[in-house]
Every structure is written in C-alpha cells, then in structure tokens.
Amino acid sequence: MIEVSRLKKYFGNIRAVDDISFSVKDGERFILLGTSGSGKTTTLKMLNRLIEPDEGTVTIDGKRHDDQPVELLRRQMGYVLQNTGLFPHYTIEENISIVPDLLGWDKDKTKKRIAELLIKFHLPPETYMALYPVQLSGGQQQRVGFARALVANPPILLMDEPLGALDPVTRQQIKGEFKKLNELKGKTIILVTHDISEAIELGNRICVMDGGKIQQTGSAQELLLHPKNEFVKHFFSHNHFLLQLNAFHLADITSYLQETSSPGKISELNPASTLMEVVGELSSFATAKDGIVFHDEKADKFFRIDMVSLFTAVQQKLNPGQ
Amino acid sequence: MMETMNEFFKFVNQESDKLLQQALVHSGLTFLSLFIAILVSVPLGILISRRRKLSGTVLGIAGILQTIPSIALLGFMIPLLGIGARPAIVALFLYALLPIIRNTYTGIVGVDANVKEAAMAMGMTDWQILWKVELPLAFPVILAGIRTATVITVGVATLAAYIAAGGLGEFIFGGIALNNSAMILAGAIPAALLALFFDFLLSRLQHVRIKKIKRVLVTGCILFVAISSLYFVPSVFGSKLLAGFPPEFMGRNDGFPALKNRYHLKINTVVIGQALLYDALKEKQIDVISGYSTEGRIKAFHLKILQDDKHIFPPYFAAPLVREDILKSYPELQSTLNLLSGKINDSLMTEMNYRVDYLHESPGEVAKDFLEKKGLYQNPRNGHKGTVRIGSKIFTEQYILAEMYKMLIEGYTDLNVTQRTGLGGTQICFGALTNNQIDLYPEYTGTGLQVILSTPQRVVDSLGGNENEVYNYVKSEFKKQFNIEWLKPIGFNNTYAVMMRQHQSERLGITTISRLVNYLSKK
Predict the structure, then answer these.
(1) Contact residues, chain A to chain B, C-beta under 8 Å
(2) ipTM of this model?
C-alpha cells in the first residue's frame, strides 16, 4: 500500500505538483496519465526520491519513505526509464546484476536469475549476456531495462513512459508481453504515460493529471462514462469509441446481447475479453457475417455477437437516451 | 640543410651522455608536474561538476593561469621558490591544470543523464555512481585532457632550463645563444619526440576497458611515479660545489669548454638564465657562476671575481658597431660616436650598472649624469636631417650605452634617433644590424671574435688575448665580411669572469680559478 498525501513540488514559480493525494493498493497497476508538463513524471520521481518533495508525505506500508537511507529505499523499487538508462560500458549481464550486487547477492544466484529472466524476455542468455547495449535493438534494450528492474524481485515497480521511445510494432509486442508476463503478477506498478489507450490497456486504475493537480482517479470505465469535469471529458473525447472498446469487456454488454440455444462453433472469447479483442475476432469474413458465439460460464449461457449487435450494445450501454 | 643535419647527428653523437641525461630530467620534470596536476585537477573537476556554481570561478582561474606567458610564470616563481626543480614543477603544474580540470568537468557533466538517473534509481550511492558510472564514462574525455596537458608540459618544460631545472631546454637555449642550429635541434627534436611518445603511451590507456578504471589508475600511478623519479637520476652524482652557467657560456669556446680544457675544471653544472644568475648565487642556490666583469651586482651582492690566472678569457672591449653605409651618409656620425672613446673604465661602468640595477635609476638619467660630468652633454638640436636607429642587447650596460649615444647624436648632429633596445642576444642584435633594421649597437671585441666570426682557435691563440690585436683583427674582418665598422673602444673590458660569494671564497681560500680547480679535485 502506497499512500501519497498532500505532495507538493515547485520549480521556481511553477507548481509542478500541487498538493496531490492518492493511494495505490498492493498488486494494483496504477497509471499516471497526462500531457507533458502535467506533473506526472515529477510525481513518480518523488516516490523513489529522485526528486525530493517540497511538502507532503509518501508512506509505503505505513512507513514514511524518507525515514530510511534513500539508497535502501530505491533498491526495493524497480525503475524503468523511457530511454532504458542502460550503462553503455557494462555488458547486458553486468547491467542486470547491478542491483543484486548492491544487495550482496551470491554470484551464482545472480547469474541463474538473470538467465531465467532473459529467457522470459526472449533474449537467449548464451547470446545476449556478454553483449553491450549498443549491440541490441531498441526493443531488446527496453526488455533488458525491464529485466534489470525486475531482477531482485522488488514488490514495487516504477515506470516512466517505458514504451515511449519504441516504434509502434515493437511497442505492441512489448505491451503484449507486459500483460502476460507472470513476473509482473502481484506487483504494485505505477506507470507514467501520455498515451491514453496504453493507460486503458495496462492499468487497473488511472489517475488523470493536469497542471500539477489530479483531475480524476478511477477505472477506465469510470473515466469514460462519468468524467468529473470538462478537462477529463475533453481528454478522452478523441477516438472515444476506440477507447471504449479497450476499456469495456464482454461482461459489460452481455445483458444487451441475444442468448442463443444452438451455439454451433464456440469461440475462445469469454466475458473478461475486451471489446477490442471481440472486434479483432469479428474482423474476418467468416465471422463478420454470422457473428460469433461465446460462453458465459457464470450464467452458463451462450450468447451470439456480431458487428451490428456489438455496436448497438455499446451505444445502449454507454450513451443511453441517445 | 643537409649540412645542418650532418652537424646535428655529429652533435648528438658527441653529446649523447648529456642528451640522455637531459631527456631523463625532462621526462621526470614533465611527469612529476603532471602527476601532481592530475591529483589536484581530477578531484577539482569532480567537485565543480557537483557544485556547478563554482565551475566558472575555478575554470576562470585556471584559464588565467594558462594565459600567463610561461617565461613570466617562471619569473614569478623565483622570488617565492628560488631556482631549480621546485619552481619549474610548480609552474608546469599550473599550466597542466586547465586542460585536465576542464576535461574532467566536461566529461562528467557529459555523462548521459538517463544513465545517471538509472544509477541513482537502482540505489547506487553517490560514491558508487562516481566510480562505477561517471568516471568510467568520462574517462576518455579526462584522458584526452591529460594528453593535452602532457604535450603542453613537455613543451613548456624546455623553459625550465632557464631557471636551472635542466632538461632539453639547455641545448635549445645554448643553441639560440650561440646560433648553433645543430644544438637547437638536439634539444628540440628529442623534446618533440618525447611529446609524441608520451602522447602515444597515454593513448594506449584509451583502449583499456574503461570499466576497469581502478586497474587503469593503479597502472597509471606506477607509470607516473616511475617516470617522475627519472628526474632524480642525474643528481645522484654530485661535486662539492655547484656551478650555474648561462646557455651561451656553456657552449662557446671561450666559456665553459675553455674552463674544462685549459683549467681541467670538473664541477657539476646547471644551466640558468643570464638574468637569474647573480640572484641564484647570492641566495646560495649555486656556488660558482660566470658573469661579466662590469656587472653592477658584483658590488651589490658582495661577489668575488676569481682571477683568470691562465688568461683564457679574451678581451671584451666595448665599441660601437656601425653600418658603413650610414657612416657614409652622415660622416658627422663617426666623430660624434667617438666622443665616448676611452671615457669609461671598468669601475665607472660597474658603478653605472649598479645605479640602474640597484638604486633603480633609469638608464637615461645615469647616462645624462655621466655625460654632464664629463662635459659632453649638449641639449638636443631637434634636427630633421635623418634618422639613426640604435639597438642594444637585453642588459643594463647596453641600455645605458644606447642612451648615451642617443644623447650624443641628438646633441651634436642634426640627426634624430630611434631606439630598438632589448634585442635578445648577440645573434639577434647582429642580425638586426646586417638586415638593416638598426644602424648601430655597442658590441664587445671578444664577442665579435668568438661568436660572430667563429674564429678558429688557432687564430684566436695567435692573437694571444692581446686587446689591440683582437680589436684590429675584428675591425678588418668585419669590414671585409659585413661592411660593418668597429669605431674606437669605449674603454672598459666587460669580459667573462668566474665568481663566487665573497664570504665563501674567503672561507675556502679560493681566489683564482686554479685554486677552485684544486679545491674541487681534493677528496
């Protein structure tokens, strides 16, 4: 549990972070979302004291984060930067072993752990361990950056635009890995991004910031359906429909769909699938015409969905009365 | 050119022992200064990369030090630290500061901010970030600074010879003073090679894996200490007294070589700039010097001239050396210049030198005072008939004589005078005369004989050190070879003289050069 209370940071006359409070539960993926200059990165860096707050407190599991040496605090938090920040003069292995070395791990243990992680990130250790960062592609470097943050199994991960410097294809790949990676399960993740769809895809809860203040905190659905103010409403207005497809799941619209008793071929979709995934399934010729059938295990019922029923359901659910 | 190269190889061959010794001393001086400079500059560079506000001040001061002309910097050191290795090392150290501080600062500030942030975020301490991230990544830039400093230091270290710290500058200065190209090259070429060699040596470090920064440092330290210690190798062999001779005296036939050949003098020597000679003797940094017999400081510093009992120093009677063409254009010039003939003896000249050097009267005042006393002074006529250009070498007596000639010419003729005083040495002064940049300057018969004419020893011996024969010989030779006229001698003989502190010479009972030789050869 991370609790941030009345945090402030001024740079000269600029209120970079202006009296914000929020809390992040254990295992939550908490997104700080905003445009540049919104104060999101400053907020993130105050959590591991890369920037010292002017006022306010941060407590982690009830303990103030400034009542221990700053180095010890940081060693318990993984940190992923936009531009990797890999040491150019260290090999991949040496880069990843920095934190274990600081923690005084046994060499063999470190080596085993690094090999294990590199395999998970699709970087065969026998090939990659001895290479230097410049010999890797941008995507590979960022994977090493993730491995470095994860190697010592920190309970908390801080990420500053981790996918920001990657090309769209690589970004999509790593995003996919990110969602599946079991290393990340159960970790408290605080991620800074300016990319709204990334925030919706990766986060449990999104904190929208602007001008150093929190505009609204909530799930993607809450933000889309019940924006608290004009800023949030405006912020999500662009590509609103696509964002909704990412933010909502089949379960959210089941009540607007037709039940079917003759299922025929049953797809792999389930109530937890996002609507974007449904669109993906529907976008081949075979399925577009007849629709697809999925199984709601809880209700033990079969539902059929096609493009038209999907659009209608979204319309009814999200924009009632129109 | 070919001839010069042949002479150069011959010279190097002959003087190989001395050359090796000078190269060792030179390397030692360079690296000792560099080593201290690195120990100071790198931490200072790190400090200002942490406290950026200080960087302007620190780099500014180091920059100002860099702009002080090297000779002047060495000059400043003498009152503080005397002569020899110490002031030289301090001066070289000051020169080496800027490139190293600046590159350390630039290198560290230039480390990728992302990398530094990552290092902090992973929980490295400041010290760990410095040693594991900043220094290794800044290392190539810092090393480049050290290499720049090395090349500068090897170059500036040639000037160390001026303040008796030795090194390859001894040959360079000697060669300039004697117009001996082979000798200059014998100092300059090894100095250039040393610079290239050290630069190459350090460039090897650039390829060491930069993560092993500590290993590089240890290797570097050992290397530096080893090379620095070379400085002390030659000084292990010592004699009871230490002599300091200016470069010109070291090289010329009637100088130190004559002391060695005719008196069989065996003494440890250091080369030292003419201007510092007397002070160094007075301050007991050296015990024996070669000076000039009319020097004002002999009186001021209580020095004792050792008698030249074998008469090896030829006569050096001063007389105006004048271009023949100007004497033809303005015939009145000759009689005017000759007004001074026979008017100044040794003690009068010593006295006048003393007044300028120690009582801080201006050469002009002293000159006018003298002319008035002799009844020779006349007010300037402010004529516009033509211009006479008077030159002088860079010491007091020459300034005084130049002033006297100016006053005489302006008082007795309708010519006006411009002065080109302070010309570096015999070669420069005489060069100016033959190249028609000046019309006249006071010269000494012995210098004309030995330095300008390079008269063979056989001929010198045949003149037997007789003042009139020497004068007549140079007068006719100069006329023949250069169309330059020696006018009548002024009267005093400013010859070479070997000197000691009066107190020490009395205590040791040394009154002649032969006795000095005897004293030194006793165990």
Answers:
(1) 48, 50, 70-75, 77, 79, 81-90, 94, 98-99, 102, 148, 158
(2) 0.86
